[in-house]
Task: inverse folding
């Protein structure tokens, strides 16, 4: 059966927007700002950019090249590279199943904030602290409804296929997201007192977090933000035309994701300092702090709506990418077995899993409800951290390290011919050095940091 029956991108722009959509999500707009606050601002940003250059770019290029060369998702792609490394494809394919199990919960929270920001034009006020408490910590039943709506939207778009659903949505959503983000940044940076927030981001200062704490935060954020080692980029690469320039695409994805993260920091940090909000306020930084800003801001209702709309677009595009990473692997297994490629049935299977996982996450209310306390496994305080500990804490950095060892040492130059189909591979020397030497060293530090973070 032809691999193309799984689907294909109609254009390179569509591929870039879909890949960027998978990367630019809650990792940028939710976790990046508060992790930057915990990591000391400028020191975190400096390490984050360094890791993107020496780890992020080589891994992004490797994943899309592996996908396009094999025309398969992670499991079969790794088997084709080296049968002994098929296990790494299995582990990477497991990542989106763990991430999607909490992603739609937050997507539902964001949808509720978006809807209420629209209602604010009619005079309905949002008390930031009380609303956060009601939405996340004390009303699992209400949150379930929003989670199911968000999950249903994800499923409907993925059911449309690669070009008919994923590509069409991302080609509209991603440019719109960047335009909205720039508007929010301009408004945030013109607030009285915003200069202190910009200094926190871009001016060197003492970092109380320490080097290893900062590299742990920055490294984990990089894997989560770029959707590395999650099977997504390999799947998207398998849908890409052979003539496209993979070097350029990898740079675009890495730089685009970085720009989105920095813009998110520029949108949130100046607003926080302008209103005396703690930059390292944790996950509530997005929900409580930003709503506090909008409540006290001239034109706050409009900017609040714009902000929650862009966060919604970011969350939905990443949710689509996570779901497609798992679906593509299942479709591959059906193709290998000589069975029909039934996207509808496979998408529903993934949707049922996502519903089950997010039901646990939603009803847990970030650990505040005793309903599913029995699922606080692996020594974690809530269901969200159970999923996240396995995915972001272990599988993503560990399988990224294994991939670097595979491409850098076991089968060096494996992707060279694939990259050269669309370019002269000008970054070959830099890529080889990073994937063989620098990348593994820093990824080993990230693995150590993530393990000690969740189980230290």
Result:
């Amino acid at each position: 059966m032809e691999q193309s029956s799984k689907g294909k991108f109609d254009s390179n722009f569509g591929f870039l927007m879909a890949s960027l959509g998978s990367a630019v999500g809650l990792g940028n707009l939710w976790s990046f700002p508060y992790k930057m606050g915990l990591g000391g601002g400028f020191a975190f940003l400096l390490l984050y950019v360094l890791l993107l250059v020496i780890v992020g770019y080589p891994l992004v290029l490797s994943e899309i090249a592996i996908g396009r060369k094999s025309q398969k998702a992670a499991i079969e792609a790794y088997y084709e590279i080296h049968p002994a490394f098929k296990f790494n494809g299995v582990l990477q394919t497991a990542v989106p199943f763990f991430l999607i199990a909490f992603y739609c919960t937050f997507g539902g929270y964001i949808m509720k904030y978006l809807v209420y920001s629209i209602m604010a034009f009619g005079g309905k006020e949002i008390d930031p602290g009380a609303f956060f408490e009601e939405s996340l910590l004390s009303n699992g039943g209400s949150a379930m409804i929003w989670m199911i709506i968000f999950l249903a939207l994800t499923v409907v778009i993925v059911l449309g296929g690669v070009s008919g659903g994923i590509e069409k949505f991302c080609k509209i959503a991603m440019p719109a997201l960047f335009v909205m983000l720039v508007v929010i940044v301009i408004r945030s940076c013109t607030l009285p007192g915003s200069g202190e927030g910009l200094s926190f981001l871009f001016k060197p200062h003492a970092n109380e977090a320490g080097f290893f704490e900062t590299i742990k935060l920055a490294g984990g954020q990089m894997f989560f933000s770029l959707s590395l080692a999650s099977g997504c980029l390999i799947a998207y690469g398998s849908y890409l035309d052979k003539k496209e320039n993979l070097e350029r695409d990898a740079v675009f994805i890495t730089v685009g994701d970085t720009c989105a993260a920095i813009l998110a920091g520029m949108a949130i940090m100046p607003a926080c300092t302008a209103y005396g909000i703690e930059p390292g306020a944790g996950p509530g930084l997005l929900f409580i702090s930003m709503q506090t800003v909008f409540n006290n801001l001239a034109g706050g209702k409009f900017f609040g709506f714009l902000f929650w709309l862009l966060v919604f677009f970011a969350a939905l595009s990443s949710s689509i990418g996570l779901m497609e990473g798992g679906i593509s692997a299942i479709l591959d297994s059906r193709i290998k077995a000589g069975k029909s490629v039934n996207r509808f049935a496979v998408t529903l299977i993934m949707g049922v899993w996502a519903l089950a996982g997010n039901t646990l996450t939603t009803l847990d209310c970030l650990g505040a409800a005793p309903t599913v306390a029995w699922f606080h496994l692996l020594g974690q305080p809530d269901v969200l951290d159970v999923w996240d500990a396995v995915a972001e804490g272990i599988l993503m950095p560990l399988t990224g390290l294994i991939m670097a060892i595979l491409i850098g040492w076991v089968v060096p130059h494996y992707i060279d011919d694939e990259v050269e189909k669309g370019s002269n591979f000008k970054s070959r020397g830099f890529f080889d050095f990073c994937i063989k030497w620098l990348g593994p060293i820093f990824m080993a530090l990230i693995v150590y940091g993530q393990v000690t973070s969740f189980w230290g």
